[in-house]
Amino acid sequence: MPRASSTPAPGLSPQFCFNERVLRDFLSLSRSTIDDSITQNLNALFTPAREGFDPSSTAVRQTDSKAGRVMDPTSCQEFKDKVLFPSWQTRSDVLTYCAGVATSPDPDDPDLILRQTESARDRERVVDERLDPYSARFFPREARTESLANLVRNQRTVEEIIRSRTWGLVSERCGGSSEGWEGALNKWRESSQR
Length: 194
What we know:
This protein is mostly helical.
């Protein structure tokens, strides 16, 4: 079985971030490659041939993931260092960059003039709510930076949930400390900076 690899970082630009479909697709692909298939990725680390084949092992279905098997600590650490953490870091970098784009002025916003025109028109509008009770409601168009900020905020929440779930499985299968994923990722960041 081929080993999983980290999804390569996309070329970061404001256009990448503002194309929300492409941003979502990148995050989804990265998550599906590593986090959504974490059990298969961890199973690929276990090589039963090292212990020799036991023909009786096929007589009974093994339902327990641990089933007397201890994962090789070196393989686990290599998976975390070369696949899991780089994938998480790439997604963090993309979300941080896009959060910066969302909080920066957007002079290229295609709807800016339309929103300004609507806003001016709405300030001049006289509303008689007795004739049309819904006329006082005005839903201004959302700037694309606001939309992007909401998307980044939601995706960061999704990241927290997915990383927590993935780290739980990695900790269970590879053994190791009771350290949370944030601490482990920060240690990896520090060691990879050297």
